[in-house]
Amino acid sequence: MTGSRPFNASGGPRVAVIGAGVCGLGIAWRLAEAGCHVTVFDRGSAGRGASWAAAGMLAAGVECEPGEEPLLELTLESQRLWPAFRRDLEAASGRTLGYRDEGTLVAALNRDDVEELRFSYEFQRGLGIELQWLSGGEARAREPYLRTSAPAAVYSARDHQVDNRLLVLALKEAFLRAGGELQEQAAVAAVETAAGHAAGVVVNDRSFAAEAVVLAAGAWSRQIDGLPEALRPPVRPVKGQMLALSMDPAEPLLRHVLWAPRIYMVPREDGRLIVGGTVEERGFDESLTAGGVFSVLEAAWRAVPAIEELPIAEMWVGFRPTSRDDAPILGPGPIEGLYLATGHHRNGILLAPATADYVSRAILEGGVPEAIRGFTLARFQQARKPSRQAAGGE
Questions:
Q1: d(CA 38, CA 126)
Q2: Pick the CATH number of 9-54+165-234+325-384 from 3.40.190.10, 3.40.50.1220, 1.10.1740.10, 3.50.50.60
Q3: CATH architecture, domain defined by 99-160+236-322
């Protein structure tokens, strides 16, 4: 593992960040606050990729599934960081983030769903996650428009939400106020290297020198040239089709984030109800499809029938940046001076505070913070190495 040599921020080192999503902007903001000269490059408009398409759930608890136990410690740590991160960011940007703390409900809609819900509940409780089992009546007392036949639900008080679009705007403003430079419509073609060290980036045939480069380009991270194929992060796009419905802000149909079979619904303060999302291995296919939109609306209607009267405000497609093991790739990269912050899959908004803090710390101080030691690119490189026996050793 390389990329971990510290430098003195007070000396004004230059850092190039590839990607202006919540992770790239968050790292850039922290570095600019520390005195670095930071330029962020984005192939489009700042924050208009996966960060804009997300739902903003901070659900470290109810989203934890079997096999994701190694990731849980990091997601819970980032969840704990969120209140302080929010206060810092709102003060630095002068903007609110639409943070809501009503909690999250996970509803079973029939008796078969109860068995699956009970399994998840017991699994997550076994990991120390604080959850409350609710009867159908108790669930409807919290959300009166939930389907009347829903027999049970689980309530997570600690799984909150933030308006991801307001978050993007706040990060952009805080970064610029801290003295950062933002270049939009500026696709990075390659990382430049010199003597085995990241030396800058190439944009529109122009070179921009830097002492450190942060690759935070989301689903496009693997497309950046300048690294051998074997050293590029194994990140691919996972397509999601989503939509927003318009509720009456004074009398919203939902107040909690609601999960139900094949659907999640996230109410915003302005009355928008975010509904999503499909999970499709379609590459960078940007098309909204009848089947995708229908599946989202049908699943939402089964959970909350009253949505059928709501106008559709917006529909869109996003691309989750997904690594080979669905966990983020963070910290020093395969060459000196290169750092990675990509592959967050569905946890980019939740992990924004941890990503910003730990990756910026790795750049400023050197080494790898303990919290992200298990999430560097090295885990994939080690997996590719043949065993001594397979290679003919003893």
A1: 43
A2: 3.50.50.60
A3: 2-Layer Sandwich (3.30)
Q: How far is 339 from 330, CA to CA, in rounded Å?
A: 7
For residue 349, what are the CA distances in angstroms to 85, 120, 246, 286, 307?
12, 23, 23, 21, 26
Give which of 311, 258, 21, 277 is closest to 146, Cα–Cα. Answer: 258
Which of 343, 195, 166 has the alpha carbon at shortest distance from 272? 166
Dist. CA 180–CA 19, nearest whole Å:
14
No. of helices (H) and no. of strands (E), the chain: 9, 19
The answer to whether 283 and 235 have CB atoms below 8 angstroms apart is no
Give the C-alpha distances (Å, rounded to integers) separating 293 from 41, 279, 282, 309. 33, 12, 15, 16
Does the reported pTM lie above 0.90? yes
For residue range 76-97, list pLDDT tens digits in order. 999 999 999 999 999 999 999 9
One-letter amino acid identity for 192? Answer: E
147 within 8 A of 109, measured Cβ to Cβ: yes
Q: What is the largest CA-CA distance in the chain?
A: 71
Q: Domain extents for the chain?
A: 9-54+165-234+325-384, 99-160+236-322
Q: What is the pLDDT of residues 313-345, one digit of tens each?
A: 999 999 999 999 999 999 999 999 999 999 999
